[in-house]
Fold:
Amino acid sequence: MTTDPDARSTLSAQSTSSVEQATVEAVSQLEAATDLEAVAALEHKFLSRRGWFAEAKSRIGALDPADRAAVGRSLNDARSQLEAAVKAARARLSASLSEDLYAAERLDLTERLPLKVPLSRGRIHPVTAARYRLEDVFVGMGYSVEEGPEVESAWYNFEALNIPDWHPARGSFDTIFVNLGEPEEVMLRSHTSPVQIRTMENRKPPIYMVAPGRTFRTDTADATHLPAFNQIEGLAIDRNITLGDLAGTINTFVGELFGRDVKTRLRPSYFPFTEPSAEFDISRPDGSWLELGGCGMVHPNVLRSCGIDPEIWQGFAFGFGIDRLAVMRHEIDDIREFVNNDVRFLSQF
Ligand code: FA5
Structure:
């Protein structure tokens, strides 16, 4: 039995028009509800087993038989309208509840907190800057920039470069081996020369390429050595290439990097993958010479390993340390400064 005085008074009339009037009133109450709890209370009041609708229905029997059908129809109609109004009120209020929740939980990711110290801009590491500069110089000379894996097989790091497993030169590369497959078969590359092989395997001559990248050796870090350092490899394969082309190329890129006053020279040396081989040096302002890297004419065995006919094609190759080059460029005393990550040092460049 409902305790609501309005509902009782409405019900007491028990006519079609009073049902319609009460329905309009109930619907407007549902439309005015401001939260889901109020909707639940109104639903209970109008539609529960003891609510307005149930009570009105139970009284139909007391009506004049002539009015029963019409009042019954208007009650059914009222029920549909009330159910629809409850549903609509719930939908309206749950949508706004989610909106309120979203608004309350919203994070402003653009918010900037006041900083205690002023932010300073990061900058490119001097070794990376040297690498980019070298790439630009060589791209300007028509070379492509190639990459290769840092973990290599003995074939690419040694054998295809004319260094068979019995060759004493293997020892001079102070290689860091990886515990994979056969012993001494997989390693961190000890130079960038394997990228020459990978490029010659995949491309037909003429080839003009450079390959900058990280290389690894068991070297202990000191003022001129790092165990992980960067090299850049250069390779030119074409018809009628001579040692003069190699010397001219080294002269050109050193001039681009250090200025025209800096001179270069080649000194006889030995690498199994070039014949003849040389070290190349650059001049310093005090007249002394500094070694930059190794170079030479590509050994015919290396060309053959890559399926290139040495009777038709010749080439030169060179390789040098980018970290060492950056040391010279910025006149730094100790190569380890590059990996100490001291912002005071790095922010000078
Ligand atoms: C080579 O690695 C040959 N692959 C270079 C080459 C390429 C010769 C093509 C002929 C033709 P070498 O071991 O000398 O050569 O190393 C070349 C340069 O790498 C050195 O001159 C030096 O600049 C740099 N380098 C070598 N070891 C280190 C190290 N531990 N730390 C920093 N730089 C290094």
